[in-house]
User: Fold this.
Amino acid sequence: MSTAPDAMEISDAKDVPVIRRRVLAEGDVQGVFYRDTCRDQAVRHGVRGWVRNLPDGSTVEAVFEGEPDAVARLVEWAGEGSPAAFVDELRVFEEEPRGAEGFTVRPTPPRPS
Assistant:
C-alpha cells in the first residue's frame, strides 16, 4: 500500500496560494454595522484578518488574508459594505501575507495629536 496519494493531497492543500489586501473604505461606513457585517462575511468565506474604524469618523480599515478568490470576494464586499453603509471610495493595497489567524474587530486607534 502506497502513501504517495495522501502525501500529494497534503502537499496540494499546502500549495494553495495566500494573498493579503488592506482596504480603506471611506464614506458613511461607521455606525452602520460595517465592521460586524465584515467579520461575518470574512468568517463565511474563510478569510482571516481584522477590521477597525479609523478616528476620522468616516473611514474603516480592514485586512483580508486567504485564498485569492475568497479575498477578492471580501474586497468586492468592502466596496458595498453593510446594507446601511454608503462607500464613497475604496482604496486597496497589496501586502505580503503575514499568517493572520481568525478575523477580529479591532478597537479604533487613538486620534493622532
Summary: The chain is about 30% helix and 35% strand.
